[in-house]
Specification:
Elements lengths: L3 E3 L9 E5 L3 H7 L5 E4 L12 E5 L4 H13 L6 H11 L1 E5 L10 H11 L12 E8 L2 E8 L11 H4 L9
Antiparallel strand pairs: 1-2, 2-4, 3-4, 5-7, 6-7
Length: about 170
Amino acid sequence: MARIIYDLASKGKGLYHIYTDLDFWDARGVLKGLAKVKRNFGNSPPGDQYPTQVVVEDMSQRVKGEIEKRLKRAIPSPPRHLIVQSIIFSGKFEFDWRQYYPERWSTERVLFFTRKRLPMNQPVINSAYKWVELAINDNIVTIQQHQGARPEETQKSGRKQKETPFGPTCF
């Protein structure tokens, strides 16, 4: 389900080189052991829409087919760096969930999947006095930042505070 853009062989120096809209951290997990996964900071295609490059030196059809099969089965989500950047500058991030997730998904599943893909170990998103709230309104998922003490949750202390959060350490 992830989109793929093929790079020209001359630009990719004769290697199998593609761009995908799958997030960098998700692509690393999906293509583990098959290919090099790099970030796309360029403008052709734009790095905000296609944040990941996949480069393979092995030109065999078996490896190419396996990479494409895994990418087509993967479900993309908004790039983590765009979420964090938008929350820093405007305090919220909004996207149409139909661009990323299957139509058959319920709103609960969309919110669960989106929350699991958020970089919750980033202090911008999740700290003692900052947190985000997810909501869906007319097919638009809104990730809104709130500041202050959490209303329903007590502060973590002791062993629970030291547990490592889910997700990568950087975006």
